Amino acid sequence: MLKLSRLTDYAAVVMAQIARHPQASHAAADLAEAVQLPHPTVSKTLKMLVRAGLLASQRGAQGGYRLARPASQITAADIISAIEGPVAMTECSQAQGECELAATCGVADNWQRVSLAIRTLLESVTLAHLAASTPLKLPVQLPIQSISLSAVSA
Amino acid sequence: MLKLSRLTDYAAVVMAQIARHPQASHAAADLAEAVQLPHPTVSKTLKMLVRAGLLASQRGAQGGYRLARPASQITAADIISAIEGPVAMTECSQAQGECELAATCGVADNWQRVSLAIRTLLESVTLAHLAASTPLKLPVQLPIQSISLSAVSA
DNA sequence: TAATTGGGTACCATTTTAGTCCTGTATAAA
DNA sequence: TTTATACAGGACTAAAATGGTACCCAATTA
User: Fold this and answer.
1) Which CDD domains match (chains A, B) (predicted)?
2) Deepest in the core among A143, B11, B31, B150, taking most CB within 10 A?
């Protein structure tokens, strides 16, 4: 299904929740309550987001989490790779020259290009977009079609 | 990692192999040999591709597999969904109204839009592109950026 | 009718994922 | 300085998905 893991899904929801109140410091327990998810799981997710540099944490009373930078400077790709590691469709999309089947494969190059296109797309969607109540209007139908078609002839 | 499953990867490689010799009928054993993968696994993959209508099979001596339609009419999205099911980034990208967290989620709509954009991208890449030895040149950097930027203002 | 080749199913091993818990450490307020 | 708050890190377990294998059946052709 090319699906995000559930934790990544949680991460996006939690990040969006924080992004809607950027000034406040958010305790893990409050966030868990707000998004209706088990506290330990949310906590785990938050730690991963801190380690990836997307959130800043403050210990002690009145502590909590806040965005490490403005929501407009945090991308969907950032959130995904914070939880799942780098966005890559295949093994060989990440590290070059480690697949022993490369000789018989014959699709590696093009998969990597598709993978790159998806990564770029995900980098163009920011947390500010995701958190906005106004739906992000991606005019997917025509423009992306035209991109790949022109790409073929190029 | 937003990664394809290994079987999906195999499927793409096998499909590309068949696409390079569209007239011939390809026995599972021959394909397994050509792409250097275990026979039973390749066989399993082939069956899934048949069930999805991407390959046609012929039993008996001189039988084998061939493309059900031209390589230019088979998309990356077809291959992925043949193995993994519909392309969708989150649970709620597929079926509307089944997520009980929708009220507190707040990102569902926009995730669905991103998911749709990726699906459209994958539908624009055909097996003919993947199988081509000439790299598919997707000019990802500028055009896709401009799409999403214009999308925001739209 | 025998040889070839795909079809289907069931099964097992492994890995990944999700979720929980426990203990430690930093901070702030009383 | 004490105490309550809240994050940090890691270990552990349970469950699910994935990948791989084996076996037997069905169809086709020579």
Assistant:
1) HTH_ARSR
2) B11
